[in-house]
């Protein structure tokens, strides 16, 4: 047993929001929901995802994409699963929802009252990882579905 004193969690400086609730985004059909995760989950989710998720290197037009990716979703009893084709030389394999992704999914579904059956997860390891300007491909998305982005970790500058 150690006599080391307990450390209290680091106090984080408040983040300056880039966008606020009520800001008009895109074509006006987008909106921002803040603090969607309960504080305890928000505190641990990023670190848990780094180890739980089966990260893959993805290639697009013969080059390595500068971030890690993973695809998770609902796998039915008969083995069927949702498909989302995105521009890549080869799509990462779909895995069932990992425990932390399932918890995040539950919170999103409650907040939006909308089912989530598939997620594309992207891990930006450092300031050198990025995504180029793009538009989401919606060929495999049911019309009227929400496309949701949950962002965890440090705010980009």
UniProtKB/TrEMBL annotation:
One Gene Ontology term of the molecular function aspect: dioxygenase activity
Signal peptide stretch: none
InterPro entries per UniProt: AlkB-like, AlkB-like_sf, ALKBH3
Domain Alpha-ketoglutarate-dependent dioxygenase AlkB-like intervals: 31-156
SUPFAM superfamilies documented for this protein: Clavaminate synthase-like
GO biological process, one term: DNA alkylation repair
Highest rank taxon of the organism: Eukaryota
The protein's name in its UniProt record: Alpha-ketoglutarate-dependent dioxygenase AlkB-like domain-containing protein
């Amino acid at each position: 047993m150690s006599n080391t004193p307990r450390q209290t969690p680091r106090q984080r400086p408040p983040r300056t929001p880039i966008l606020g609730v009520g800001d008009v985004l895109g074509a006006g059909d987008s909106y921002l929901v803040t603090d969607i995760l309960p504080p305890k989950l928000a505190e641990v989710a990023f670190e848990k995802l780094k180890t739980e998720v089966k990260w893959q290197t993805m290639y697009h037009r013969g080059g390595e994409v500068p971030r890690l990716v993973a695809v998770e979703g609902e796998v039915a009893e008969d083995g069927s699963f949702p498909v989302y084709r995105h521009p890549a030389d080869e799509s990462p394999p779909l895995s069932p929802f990992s425990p932390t992704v399932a918890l995040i999914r539950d919170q999103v579904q409650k907040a939006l009252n909308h089912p989530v059956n598939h997620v594309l997860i992207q891990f930006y390891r450092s300031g050198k990882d990025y995504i180029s300007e793009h538009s989401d491909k919606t060929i495999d998305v049911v019309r009227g579905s929400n496309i949701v982005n949950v962002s965890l970790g440090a705010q980009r500058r």
